[in-house]
Specification:
The chain is α/β, with parallel strands linked by helices. The chain is globular and about 90 Å long. The termini are far apart. The mean pLDDT is 93.
């Protein structure tokens, strides 16, 4: 392929710099792949465009509508991924590496689309936590809410994952309703630009919701303010520089960093050389050393094993590494490609030299190894290199990272020693422990969890389903304290909320119900002559109420329920034992009998817009119900959520069951599916 000048997508158009730009060479053969320049681009205008065009466009969409757009985008990109794989090979990625990056990125979009549909309302506001009572009479209450910030999410990415790296940041920001500006790493920006070009061509995302900057981000950083955020992935050194940027500090720009770290994997003291966990440990270590040629922020750098197992682990790892074929990604049989550039190869070798101050190189010779389909003099090839620590207490192995196919085996005396060694890494993205011993797992977890964003416990039982040490998952947090950057990404809806502002709203129940879209106790109820179950979703309003009862509970009802269900717990069937119970003082009705009787008091049995009851949330039994108590139920429409692309929506009902003394005996939420229109209901 010929070299091409990469373009930025800014303010609704593609921009190509007029100068020649800087060359970007493939690590496979040294050939020029692209040129990069942002000369002449009004970068500050991109931030303004995002706020004034992209922000309002996203604000007009609900969480569910944004989720639907992400799902459509993911499916569209997946259908054309063959060209992305071809371009990815030029970055040095094998087919397996490309799958992790490309399919992993599209999978993250789908994951966030699904989570937003399941866990967020079909609204633009998200409620956080329960209502807080601020006054004795219930007329002054408060609630926390999340709303979208009116800024732009700037992402500055590393070179190792040119697709996943920007999509895993885009997905939560997009769901949150915040436009994004993507700044890819120069060395692999040609793959990011290709995927981004297909995103724009699809027309699926609102204009201004995504922009691409291929070039220098400095001008962009100086245009940011308190509603904006910067998410960085890369070296700890660069993260420190960005964190202290005067504009980010002075204007309170939200900043998060995910930095490379000295991740550890521990072989438990319970694992023998003939145990399945031993093989799992070695297999995982080799996979982490060779996937993406070891260029992963989550790769294993420190392999901690009991002192008596060091030789066995090295021998087993050597046997597997000997089968690794280094070379051009498209050459037959190649299982590991080059690192990203010649300069990166130089950096890796320099780091290995420093590590050798307290370790010996036991596998891999960077001066003597075979390259299949490539030339080590022009390509950025390295063999996988395994070192053996000669002094576990020496600083090098706990401070120096060789960001390539390199790991160091470190012997430890006992579990407490291993925990202490891991902590010396100063904070990491992930650690793994291979053990089948639950008590050992707990000891290690308590010792190192405060220093990590994620911990994997691997053994023969979960190995078949395990996603591996180095694989961040969209539903789990990705980040870590200290050296790892101190930030947090992903984590399911947690990642969305990072881009939203949490605000405490105070007022009357009526005001909070009107502003949040959810009825709460003390807000007005509407009890009309029409049963709420006869209303379609379009007609139903929060606060619509039905009061049913009273219904007297007889001892015969309790006896029948016990016999019919088989729930013959003594409190319902044995008067003497029940009388001795300090909580009851006699026979009481089953809680589920109370709920069942309450349903009989509020249900309208005829076919209509209510299609199904699909659950009950927050059920609590508050006051025991005894024979001859009279029950009344008040059912109020609490929250109405239309489902996108469906003929029905969800209605959450507040249910309160009281006795003849007006004391609450049970409270819960009833969940139903209701047709959007009357002619969409049952029997229509």
């Amino acid at each position: 392929m010929d070299s091409r000048m990469l373009e930025s997508y800014a303010c609704g158009r593609w921009y190509r710099a007029a100068d020649e730009g800087r060359p970007v060479n493939s690590p496979v053969d040294g050939a020029e792949v692209a040129r990069v320049s942002s000369t002449g681009l009004d970068v500050a205008a991109m931030a303004t465009y995002a706020r004034e065009v992209g922000g309002p466009a996203l604000a007009a969409l609900t969480f569910h509508e944004r989720a639907a757009a992400l799902k459509t985008l993911a499916m569209t990109l997946m259908a054309g991924k063959a060209e992305f794989y071809a371009e990815s090979a030029r970055t040095g990625a094998t087919e397996r590496d490309s799958g992790v990056d490309i399919d992993g990125g599209f999978g993250t979009l789908l994951s966030y689309a699904g989570k937003a549909k399941r866990e967020l309302p079909n609204d633009v506001i998200h409620l956080d936590g329960p209502v807080e009572q601020l006054g004795k009479k219930g007329t002054f209450v408060a609630r926390h809410v999340f709303t979208s910030r009116r800024g732009v999410a700037v992402q500055i990415n590393a070179y190792n994952f040119p697709v996943w790296g920007f999509l895993e940041k885009l997905a939560p920001a997009f769901i949150a309703g915040v436009p994004t500006i993507v700044k890819p790493a120069t060395q692999t920006s040609y793959l990011t630009e290709l995927v981004f070009r297909r995103i724009i061509e699809s027309g699926i995302l609102p204009e201004g919701s995504v922009q691409l900057l291929v070039g220098d981000p400095e001008q962009l950083l100086t245009s940011l303010g308190g509603q904006d955020s910067v998410a960085f992935t890369g070296s700890a050194r660069t993260a420190a520089v960005l964190r202290s940027h005067p504009v980010l500090v002075e204007r309170g720009v939200h900043f998060t960093a995910e930095a490379d770290s000295l991740n550890a994997s521990v072989l438990g003291v319970d694992v023998a050389a003939d145990a399945p966990e031993f093989e799992l440990y070695v297999k995982q270590l080799v996979a982490e050393m060779t996937t993406k040629a070891g260029q992963k922020c989550t790769a294993i750098r420190r392999a901690l094993v009991p002192e008596g197992m060091v030789d066995a682990v090295i021998d087993a790892t050597r046997a597997r590494l000997d089968r690794v074929v280094v070379g051009a990604p498209l050459a037959d049989g190649v299982t590991m490609g080059p690192v990203v550039s010649l300069s990166q190869r130089t950096d890796v070798l320099a780091a290995v030299d420093k590590l050798r101050a307290s370790a010996e190189l036991v596998v891999g010779d960077p001066q003597d190894f075979e390259v299949v389909g490539g030339d080590a003099t022009v390509g950025a090839y390295l063999p996988p290199m395994l070192l053996r620590s000669t002094d576990p207490e020496a600083p090098e192995v706990h401070e120096i990272e060789a960001f390539g196919p390199v790991a160091t085996v470190v012997g430890y005396r006992d579990t407490a020693h291993a925990v202490g060694l891991i902590r010396r890494g100063g904070g990491s993205l992930v650690a793994s422990l291979v053990t089948a011993d639950g008590a050992l797992a707990r000891e290690v977890l308590l010792g190192i969890a405060p220093y990590h964003g994620r911990l994997l416990v691997l053994n023969a039982e979960d190995a078949r389903e395990s996603t591996g040490h180095g694989s961040p998952l969209p539903m789990l947090v990705h980040g870590g304290p200290g050296r790892a950057g101190g930030g947090e990404e992903l984590g399911g809806i947690r990642g969305v909320l990072h881009h939203m502002q949490r605000t405490a709203i105070q007022g009357t129940p009526a005001i909070l119900a009107a502003t949040t879209g959810q009825w709460l106790a003390g807000a007005p109820r509407t009890a009309s002559g029409v049963h709420p179950f006869r209303k379609s979703l379009a007609e139903l309003q929060i606060g619509d109420t039905i009061v049913g009862g009273p219904r007297t509970v007889r001892l015969a009802d309790i006896d029948h329920f016990a016999e019919f269900t088989g729930d013959t717990f003594y409190a319902h069937t044995d008067p003497v034992a029940a009388a001795a119970n300090p909580l009851f003082g006699g026979i009481v009705a089953h809680g589920y009998l109370v709920v069942s009787l309450a349903a009989g008091l509020f249900v309208d049995p005829a076919p209509g817009p209510v299609l199904a009851n699909f659950g009950v949330d927050s059920l609590r039994f508050l006051t025991p119900v005894k024979a001859d108590d009279a029950l009344t139920v008040t059912l109020t429409a609490k929250q109405i959520t239309p489902r996108s692309g469906a003929e029905y929506g969800e209605v959450r009902w507040d249910a309160v069951v009281t006795n003849q003394d007006d004391a609450p005996v049970a409270t819960y939420d009833v969940l139903t599916l209701v047709a959007k229109t009357l002619d969409g209901g049952a029997g229509a």
